[in-house]
Every structure is written in structure tokens, then in C-alpha cells.
Amino acid sequence: MVTSMLVNFLLMCIALVALPKKNPVIASNIKVLVSSRLRNILALAGIVFLSLFLTIHVWKDMTSAVSNWYFHTTYVWLIVMTIASLIYFWQLRKLTKKGKDWKEIFKKLPTE
To answer: Is 0.70 topped by the overall pTM?
Structure first.
């Protein structure tokens, strides 16, 4: 769970930096931290610190002495993420075969 949270927050920081270039419409509607300079500074600091924490967490997990391989949470997380990614790409392929433009679908936020 710790690995997932660290990766999730890391991806959020990366998205915060990339959003103005990838989707300026959504980026222009950001209400919290309106200053893009402050947002980028915090996001970059988040990327640095979360990467450091993730590296330490994975290193500690992989170097710990456990009785079986499945007690290393990193391996379990990688297996779960591989299965989830396969399902994601399978569904993405189904959308493409139906002729839907998934890039346009993902550019719009769902209604609240």
C-alpha cells in the first residue's frame, strides 16, 4: 500500500507539471494554488522527495530478509500493476477497435 501511495502521489506531481502542456483547458481551471510558479515549485519538490522516499522504500523492501519472495511488497505490487496494465491496454484496444478516439475521451473530465 505504501508503494502504491508513493507512486500515485509521484504521478500526481508529474501530472501537475505536465498538465498545462497536455491539456491547457483543464489547467486553466485550477482553483487551488492559482500561481503556476508556486504550483510548479511544489510539484517539482514533490517529485524529488517522493522519488527519494520511493527509492528508499523499495531498497529497504528488497534488502529485507524474508522467508518467501511474496513477502517483498515490491514484487506483489509489480504483479498487481502488470495485471491492471494488461486490463487497461486491453480495454483501450477495444475502444480503438470500436472507432472511438480515446485521447479525446480522456481530455474531458467526467461531470461532477
So the answer is: yes
